[in-house]
Amino acid sequence: MKKVRVLVTRFSAMGDVAMVASVLRELQAQNRQVELVMVSRQHFEAFFEDIPNLTFHPIFPEEQHKGPKGLWRLFQELKKYKIDYVADLHNNIRSKILTLFFKTAGYRLGILDKGRHQKKDLIKRKNKILVPLRPTVERYADVFRHLGFHLKLGNALKKKDRPVPETFKSLLNHSGKNIAVAPFAQHPYKVWKLSNWDIIFRAFPTHQFYIFGGGRQEQETATDWSSLHPNVHSTIGKLSVSAELDLISNLDYMLSMDSSGMHMASLVGTRCLSIWGATHPYAGFLGYGQSINDCIHVEHPNRPSSIYGNKSCLCDGVEAIDLVSTEMVIERLKGIL
């Protein structure tokens, strides 16, 4: 069968790029003739490490690939791969400029339909249309179907066999469960009150919790939790992205916000309970293979207020994320532990 080479672009955000990896893994498994060139930020390369016949090409949007001139430079770099198709899975200003260069050069293109109108109907305050939208992973898959490839998404978790990072090997040998926790997110309206976590950690003293994600401030918070609770361990600043995936694959569950942690759990086949506030799983961003039954949230007419969680979502004077009580989370955890 003749080999074909597909250029795929998705530059951010972290969770969206992780979902692309889930789709590309399925695409390659069902179309062995396909060779992939993935263009994204270098920090996300680990998401694609185990996909056969995939070459990762980093974009540096703040450096040599900044602005139209930088994107022209990137275009010249990518042409050397002698690609057959271009799949734009981002459809933002930067990817549109790059795609225009390829279109002008005569390449066959597939471009993501973000479903903007449906999403606007989902988040508007009046006459909101609260129905499940097409999942983002299916929208990604549609791009490849448009290009003529057969692709059927199984949307199932597949547990990955990965090594345990040396730093954490000794901690996994105990009688309780090992639970990943991703309590932070880019936007505050997607973050559960940090004080709630002390209650969660105390409620399950025989189980071990591993904190993922965040920068210096989040690292300090995780360190404080670790000093207060002997069953809490921070991974922040200690592991590469690849090693984080290694550890998550060896844990029993993840408890996450609507954030990249959920999508990293999907990449390695770990079941995730997720807490939702200003956003809603109906928007199509539930982790690949994760169940909507594992979403912890309280329905309210004002939800969701935004697709990405960057806007306040007051529900009778209370932020939507704060409608989720510690009792609700404890009950859901007890149901699976």
Structural summary, described in words:
The chain is α/β, with parallel strands linked by helices and 337 residues long. It folds into 2 domains: 4-146, Rossmann fold (3-Layer(aba) Sandwich), CATH 3.40.50; 166-336, Glycogen Phosphorylase B (Rossmann fold). 33% of the residues lie in helices and 16% in strands. It has helices at 14-30, 67-79, 93-104, 116-123, 136-146, 195-203, 216-228, 241-249, 260-267, 326-336; strands at 4-9, 34-41, 54-59, 85-88, 108-111, 178-182, 208-211, 232-234, 253-257, 272-275, 295-296, 314-315, 318-319. Helix 7 links the parallel strand 7 (208-211) and strand 8. The protein is globular, with a radius of gyration of 21 Å. The mean pLDDT is 97.
Key terms:
337 residues, alpha/beta, Rossmann fold, 2 domains, 6-stranded parallel sheet, 5-stranded parallel sheet, 16% strand, globular
Global shape: globular
Fraction of helical residues: 25-40%
CATH architecture term of the largest domain: 3-Layer(aba) Sandwich
DSSP helical segment count: 10
Brief sketch in words of this structure:
The protein has 337 residues and is α/β, with parallel strands linked by helices. The chain has ten helices and 13 strands.
